[in-house]
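Q: Here's a chain of 510 amino acids. Please give me its 3D structure as tokens.
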Amino acid sequence: MITELKEVRLALEKEQSLLLSVINSIPDMIFFKDLDSRYVGCNKAFEDYIGLRQQEISGKTDFELFPKEVAEFYTNNDQQILEDGAPIRNEEWISFNGKRRLHETVKALVHNRNNEVTGILCISRDITDKALIQKRYIEAKEKAEESDRLKTAFLANMSHEIRTPMNSIVGFSNLIADGGLSAEEQKEYAGYIDVAANSLLNLINDIIDIAKIEAGQLTIKPEYISLSKLFDEVFQLSHEYIKKADKENLKLSYTIEKRLEDKKFLSDPYRLNQVLINLITNAIKFTPSGTINFSVELIDTRLLFKVKDTGIGISKKDQELLFTRFRQVGENKELRVKGTGLGLAISKHIVDLMLGTVWVESEKGIGSTFCFEIPYYPQEEENTARGLLIKDRWKDKVIVVIDKEDASFNYFKAIIGGTGAKIIRTYNCSEALNVLKENSEVNLIYTDYNCSDQDFQRFIQEVKLKSPELPLVLQTSSNEAESVKSFCDSFIIKPVQYHLLLESLDTFMV
């Protein structure tokens, strides 16, 4: 008899151990409560979640383990299942231990052999990551669908935008070809053809620019330009546009900060002109009458451009989508104007390439101010700077530049180009190391500092180990200046002033 009891007990212990192993191996949280909602057992996943061992959890209520609002939620669920008898399944966001997680929880009653309720069994699964993935998937799907819708609408609009000027060009050309027109009529029709041709040309240019942006081939070609000359050209082009738009009650003006009037600075004249024209023509479209003013001022080391109008203004909702491709403000028939919805998106990309930012300030019914700022690289008139630009001053010298940004590299190239130095461009540290291995005539390395790039850190170590005499000059932000002093020969604070760059490099090049 005693032997049989031992065998039964051992069998029960074995089954209990097996059951406990199975429960503890399940990643979901499992716990048991009595009829008073006190914990009587749990698995390891629940222990890890609470941060206590089972012995410390047993006998406690939710109010002793969780914040009050969480404990009340759990306790109300317990009361509900005890009253209704039906299992409960829900998803709940729970804030606990400084984290907010989404749990899928199932609660069911536990019965004994006599079908009497003895407690509550709960299984809870953390589905936060799953929910976030589903949310991102839905957002991506909606974004893709919206993009398809916008592209379809864009293509339909594009067809209209192409056919309209083509209709004028073909129609008036045929009328002129048929003859029988007076000289005045021929001149008038030729004017219509010219307007339509320019409209078509602008459309084609926008399409080409968007294609270049998609392919990553839109680049900046900096040269020294005069702000006064630039603003004069923009004013003349914009004034012609106002005439063609037949808006006699619209007054256009511009303002240049006095200290900038006779200054030249480094930028891409074609692209800067394009951005200003895009913003001004956009203002003309949405300003029936009133004023438009475009201006520039110097704020620290950056140029701030503004295009201010007294037009219809832009709602907050439209402002959020303003620089998105294929979008137009007020996509309803009342506010619809001619255009493809590409101009502002192209302008933003150009400003980004110029290392600048663009934004809008607007109030519905009052007007809008489009602003963008770019780094100011003035043409210095100091004797030192002029002396450093003596042609072929650094002849036969070789500089390796690590720079993947076209705008930044083009700026460097424009400054150094006249010194006679040979510039070898590389896009990353690995390429630069290969150049150094193949070329023993390198005189200097110039690169942007990236403290978070592990490849960059290894690159510096290898260069200093194998070529300790090779000068390393970094361009960096002011808050990182102190940290780079220990491993570089010189550094330049961004935005880089051209004469300071020349002076710094000249130390190692002559």
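Q: Can you summarize the key feature?
A: The longest strand covers residues 99-111.
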